[in-house]
Amino acid sequence: MSKRTRVFLFAAAGVLVVAVATGLVAWATRVSAAGGAAEDLAYVPATARMVAYVDVRGLTNSPFRDRLRQLERTGPAGQDPLETQTGVRLDTDVDGLLIVSTAVELAVERAQSSLVIARGRFDAARIEGLMRGKGGQIDVYRGKRLVTVANGTNDTALVFAEPGLVVFGPQTSVRGALDAKAGAATGIASNGEFMALVNDVSQGTAWTVAKMDSASGGAPLPPTVLSQLPPIDWLAASGRVDTGLHGFVRAEARDAQSAESLRDVVQGFLALAKLQGGRDPAYKSMLDSVALSAVGKSVSLTFDVTPAVLDLLTPRGSPGAAPRRP
Amino acid sequence: MSVPLLPSTRRIFDLALGQLLWGRRGILLVLAAAAPILLAMVTRLTLVGDGAIVQINGRRIDSQAVFGTVMSLLYLRFIVPAIGVFYGTSLIADEVEEKTITYLFTRPLQRGAIVLGKFLAYLVCVTAVVLPSAAVVFMVMVPFDEMASLLASFVRDLGVLALGLAAYGAVFLWAGALFRRPLVGGLLFVFGFEQLAIVLPGYVGRLTIAHYLQADTTSVVCLLLVTVVALWAAMLIIGHREYVLER
């Protein structure tokens, strides 16, 4: 082999290595900074069936939210019970909200349990006082003050795991979250498939990843709907809000054939929706923005709710509600 | 007395690799590698520019979508088959055409080693050009913050590209060993039959290599099987055939 051939082959291999290394660096940095939820995901145990995240601050500060408020028919302004009892105003005091649904093995059955991990500014003393008022007991677990309420109807716990981070839910789940954070239990980060989907959607203002396990009753869809669909392993969705809403839904089917069937089913629903809502300019515009694609086992759907669509949905923007000219 | 298969293969490989890389057909490889990179640069500039927006059906197309299209339409549907036909058919047919195959046959080499050595040289040569070209397109076209989500499919695409080049190369090497002028037939197969068969309903598409250019187990097994069977058939032909060279 001549010298120039050898040099050429090394250069070619070098280009390949650089490209893959760049991709790996991008992947690694994205994992370590997967939106605002990255740090909070350390509290999610490996038994999680569904994880949903809302960037509350991003959502409340978005122009989309302002426009959406115009659509809401608000009654007389009343005090929010959450704010009254805890002093927490959801739209100003909470930055991010992570909701986790985990499978819990009970003595006779497997049940679902939800855990809330919220990051923001909280009045810890007031919230702890509220819990104690309901019979709460103080316990220390993994070096954290755990407030537990256990009676006939309730078995919940709350912990301020870090400054500005509260974990709330059933006692087993809260302890499980602290175990996962301490490394005493396997965390969700060990599930490569789950994390890959999280990476795909975590740029959204709100996102969710769910394991579709109908056998354990953990699927986020009703069994009647699931039975009509081809087998799906994972479902991921995200919504990015700015002046509009950019939605993305991805389903991982069991195999390529199931993915094709799923795409056909969704395509059928879209056709029906276009038939039903095609006459309304607002819905027509939204339906026109829907793009469906299937690659391998993945079926993806994207859609946009643009400011123009919101204008059409608001009473002032709706042609039907326009004031009549004299 | 002929040298065993592996040392013979290595000798042919060394000889053929230099010929393939620095020969006349190298221009085709350079074009095949450079054209997508140029296209990627233009597309990226268009996508980042404020003035121009690439839209299909009124929908803005992002760099990820463009990269996927480039990989499937440009590389897998055009570059890989084209290189397979031009290079694969020439590996043996050119030696016959230029009457130099006699020199190889008179050397103390196993005849099968000629096929194997030339095929391996072809594979190294084309993968060393096409795969880095795809890698550069990836780096140019996909923004850094979007690379993470595309990395797995990009690596899979590289594998499919390599397997596709191997399968097409082996099949057309076999055609080059069997037929006197295989290029026209090869072009008709790749750009006629395959393109038609893929859009036809039913099972006709499964008779094409293009159908298996996917990153799933069945397709990978099929591509490997096609490569091995075609190589084995070409080695059999070369081993038993007496080439009558025209004066």
Task: Describe the structure in your own words.
The complex is a heterodimer of chains A (326) and B (247). Chain A is α+β, with helices and mostly antiparallel strands. Chain A has helices at residues 3-32, 56-60, 63-71, 81-86, 90-93, 124-133, 171-182, 192-201, 223-228, 256-277, 281-288, 307-313, and strands at residues 48-55, 94-105, 110-120, 137-141, 144-150, 155-162, 165-170, 206-211, 232-241, 245-253, 291-295, 298-305. Chain A has a domain at 35-70 and 84-254. In chain A, 40% of the residues lie in helices and 29% in strands. In chain A, strand 2 (94-105) and strand 3 (110-120) form a beta hairpin. In chain A, helix 3 packs parallel to helix 12, helix 10 (256-277) packs antiparallel against helix 11 (281-288) and helix 11 packs antiparallel against helix 12. Chain A is globular. Chain A starts with a helix and ends in a 13-residue tail after the last helix. In chain A, 30% of the residues are buried. Chain B has 247 residues and is mainly alpha-helical. Chain B has one domain (5-240). Chain B has a two-stranded antiparallel sheet with strand order 1-2. The two termini of chain B are 29 Å apart. The A-B interface holds A 1-2, 4-5, 8-9, 11-13, 15-16, 18-20, 22-24, 26-27, 29-31, 196, 199-200, 256, 288-289, 291, 295-296 and B 14, 17-18, 21-22, 58-59, 68, 124, 128-129, 131-132, 135-136, 138-139, 144-155, 158, 214-216.
